[in-house]
TrEMBL record:
SUPFAM superfamilies: Winged helix' DNA-binding domain (SSF46785)
Pfam families in the cross-refs: MarR (PF01047)
InterPro entries registered for this protein in UniProt: HTH-type_Bedaq_tolerance, HTH_MarR-typ, WH-like_DNA-bd_sf, WH_DNA-bd_sf
The protein's name: HTH marR-type domain-containing protein
PANTHER family linked to this entry: CONSERVED PROTEIN (PTHR39515), HTH-TYPE TRANSCRIPTIONAL REGULATOR RV0880 (PTHR39515:SF2)
Domain HTH marR-type: 13-145
Organism: Streptomyces scopuliridis RB72
C-alpha cells in the first residue's frame, strides 16, 4: 500500500491562501446585492441565513453561530423582528426564553437575495473560458469542504475577508 502523495509545502499553502483571499475579496462586490432592500446588510443576511439553516434558535445560539456579541445580536434581532423578517416564539423547554425563527417574509427576502447573487455569479462565470469554467467546477468540492470547515455559520463567508 502506498502513502498518499504529499501536499504542498507551507510556503505553497501560504501562496494559495493569499491568492484565494484576494479572489474572494474581489468577488465580494458581486455577492453583495444592488437591488435588495437597503436594510438587508451583510450581517442581517447572515442572521437570516443562520436561521434558515438551523431553524429556530435562542438569541444566544444565534450569536454563537455568527461569532458576534450577544448584545449586538439582540439589537439585530429587534430590528429583524420590526421588519417582519423573523418571528419570536416561546421556547418550549424554557418559557422564560424565546426562540427566533425566519418568517415567510424573511425567507422570501433571503431567497430573492440568493437568486440574485447566483444570477450575478453565473453572469461572471460566463465571462470565463470553457477551460476556466471546467477548472472552477473541478475546484468546487475543495472550496465547499474549506467553507464547511472554516465558517462560523454554514453558507456564509467569514467577516473581514
Amino acid at each position: 500500500m502506498t502513502a498518499p502523495a504529499p501536499g504542498p509545502d507551507p510556503a505553497e499553502i501560504a501562496e494559495i491562501a493569499g491568492r484565494l483571499r484576494l479572489a474572494i475579496q474581489h468577488l465580494l462586490p458581486v455577492l453583495r446585492s444592488r437591488s435588495a432592500p437597503g436594510d438587508l446588510t451583510p450581517s442581517r443576511q447572515a442572521a437570516l441565513a443562520a436561521l434558515a439553516a438551523h431553524g429556530p434558535l435562542r438569541i444566544s445560539e444565534l450569536a454563537a453561530r455568527m461569532g458576534i456579541a450577544l448584545s449586538t445580536t439582540s439589537r439585530m434581532v429587534d430590528l429583524l423582528d420590526s421588519t417582519g423578517w423573523i418571528e419570536r416564539h416561546p421556547d418550549p423547554q424554557d418559557q422564560r426564553a424565546s426562540l427566533v425563527a425566519l418568517s415567510r417574509t424573511g425567507r422570501a427576502v433571503l431567497e430573492a437575495r440568493r437568486r440574485e447573487t447566483a444570477a450575478r455569479l453565473a453572469e461572471q462565470i460566463t465571462l470565463l473560458t470553457a477551460e476556466e469554467q471546467r477548472a472552477l467546477d473541478a475546484a468546487l468540492p475543495a472550496l465547499e469542504a474549506l467553507s464547511e470547515r472554516a465558517t462560523t455559520y454554514p453558507g456564509e463567508l467569514p467577516r473581514g475577508i
